[in-house]
Every structure is written in C-alpha cells, then in structure tokens.
Design goal:
363 residues, Rossmann fold, Dihydrodipicolinate Reductase, domain 2, 2 domains, eight-stranded mixed sheet, six-stranded parallel sheet, 25% strand, binds nicotinamide-adenine-dinucleotide
Length: 363
Amino acid sequence: MTDATGDALPLVVVGVGRIGLYHARHVQELGRELGLCELVGVVDGYGDTAERVARQLQEGQEKEIRAFGSVADLLGAGLAEGGAVVASRSEDHESDARAMVDAGWRVLLEKPLTDSLESAEELAAYLNNDESRSRALMLAFMRRFDAALIHAREMLAERIGRIFKIVSILEDSHPPPEGYQSPGLLTDMAVHNADEIIWLTGRDPVAVTGTGARLYNQKISSVREEIDDAFVQLWLADDAIGQIQVSRNHVAGYRNETSIYGEEGMIRVGHFQEDPLKVQFEAYGRGVLIERRSFWLRDYGDGVPVFIQRFGPAYKAEVAHFAEQCRDHGPFCVDQNDGLRAMRVVAAGTESLRMAGDARSIA
Ligand SMILES: NC(=O)c1ccc[n+]([C@@H]2O[C@H](COP(=O)([O-])OP(=O)(O)OC[C@H]3O[C@@H](n4cnc5c(N)ncnc54)[C@H](O)[C@@H]3O)[C@@H](O)[C@H]2O)c1
C-alpha cells in the first residue's frame, strides 16, 4: 500500500452514492499513481453511508478517511482546506456547493448545476459576483474529458467542414434506482447532451423546442418523472441545429451516440453494440472513409453503473484536471456558466414540451 506524498491536495467527496463512490476511488487512484491528491474525508447524510464507505475505502490507503454526516460537520472539523467533489442529490447541489465555496474550498460539482433553472441562475450569479468565487467551481461535464469525443472535436474543423447538425443520443436501459431524486428527464439526462453540443460546435443556442412522452419506464419505476422519452431540437448560431434524444427505455442496454454532420463529411462516435467497453469512432468525407478506430474503455468489473462503464476514464480525467488546477491555482476549463447554459436549454425544452398545443391532430 503506497500513499500520496505530503504535497498531495486534500480532497473530500460530498455524497458517496452511486457516482460519488467512484469519484472517491478515482481520487485515491490519482493519489497512488501521481501523488496528486489524497482522500481525507467523505460526507453523506443517508443512513450509515459515510461510515460504511470510509471503512471500505480505508483498506486502500494509510491516511485516515474521516466520515461526516453533513457538510456543516465537515467544515466544523477544521480539516486543512482543499478541494471538494460534490456528488450529492441534485436538490442539494446548491446548498452543498455554496457552503464549501463560502468556506474557501474549490468545488467539482456534479451535473446538473442545480435542480431548477431559477436556483441555477442564482448560484451562477452568486459565484460570478466575486472574483475569487467566480473561479471556485468546476462543473462535472465528463464528456469533455472523454477520449473519443475529444478526438472528434479535434478532427471537426479540418476534416468535415462547417458543421450544420449534431445528433446527440443518451438512452438508459434501466430506471434509476429506488430512492434516486430526479429533477426531471431533461434536467437529469439531457444537460449532458446540451453541453456536448455547445462544446463540440462552440456555438450558442438561440432557440429550443421539445417534445416528450411517457412510454414504458414510468410504468415500472418508483422514481417519478413527468416523461421518460424526449426529443429536443436546438437552433444554434451560424445556421446549425442540435438534436437531442434521451430516454429511459432502451432496454437492450445503455445507448450513447453522437453524430456530427458537416458540409464535407460526418463523424460518428459510439453506436449501440454488444461490447460496452468499445466506443467506435468513424469519420467520413464525401463518399470516403477517413478514419475508423475503436476506443477501449476500462473494465470496472461486473455490477458497476452503466455510466461508469462508458465514462469511467473520463470521470477520472475530470477529477485529475480539478486536482491539478486546485494545486496550481489555475482556472477550470468548464464552470458554472457552462452548467447554466445547459440548464437554460433543458428548461426551455421542458417548457416547450409542456405546450401540447404544438401537436396537430390528424384524426
Ligand atoms: N456525470 C454523470 O454522468 C452522472 C451520473 C450519475 C449521477 N450524476 C449526478 O450525481 C449526483 C448523485 O447521483 P447518484 O446517482 O450518485 O445518486 P444517489 O441517489 O446514488 O446518491 C446521491 C445521494 O443520495 C443518497 N441516497 C441514496 N439512496 C438514497 C435514498 N433511498 N434516500 C435518501 N438518500 C439516498 C446517497 O447516499 C447520496 O448522498 C446527481 O446530481 C446526479 O445528477 C452524474
């Protein structure tokens, strides 16, 4: 068992449910591999989760991992200031992130920025209002750290010409687990796609429309959501569109695909297939294949959440970026303003799909 050096950045994880546990593991791995950071505490108010996870992870390191039932307890304990990965429920993002930032910590906050557009606007304004606070938060849009998507972004301009359309698809195979708190299908899932489209094109959305339905998942899930299937279209600056397809109904398996259309060709990242550890990348010019390759993912073993299987290395790379920028007092490459921009898209999409008057009867 090797531990991080004395220079390692102390990190805590707030909320160690499905994803927080893996953030904590990645912190430990980055400590062992690079001496970059050190897990010093976990916070969770649900049952004995904090103690249980601290005990479980302690087996992987010598430095004590302290367990806290709340952010207030953590801040009262006088730990050396460092970084906090906040992966609590979406409804707790704002209060947890604000408390940590107010206490002088930098925060890597899970998506969505908050659970409503109103609170997201408030949090972003609060952070932006002050020089030091404005640099305190990184938003955990892990797609920006995914090797296959980064490769696509690098190839875009020179290989497929001006982009006029992106189709971004995210479909779950199972309902969220019992007890999961969802702020709604679009806020929970489509924020990823909205940010991906904005990040890949570098263009701002100017209008949004959406439509949705309750098809299957809501008949079998205890987690209440207004819809379980949706289509959202974004009009982007410079004559382009983004199309988002999200659902909880792809029972054959987790589906994650991005297709980028340009005036000289197209790029596709991922398509649903039998091996969840392979992400297929294809770039085509007019009638010719430019590049085809596979990006291989890390095998986290059986029973891990599907998003860990697909994005595990990206989650680890985002924690590494967070720790490096904390250590170097540098800016984060993705922050509250990106989180807010994506929230505006999904809020507009939700508002649009509630206006059933858009549909024309043909009976
Ligand atoms: N970036 C991504 O791809 C990604 C993936 C999953 C989740 N997330 C985000 O991370 C955050 C946490 O998501 P998660 O999937 O880890 O949620 P989770 O429900 O597993 O855990 C979140 C918190 O809720 C607690 N909890 C778990 N079961 C509970 C219950 N029955 N009653 C009360 N509390 C309970 C957990 O202990 C934890 O503190 C959310 O904001 C979510 O949007 C992001």
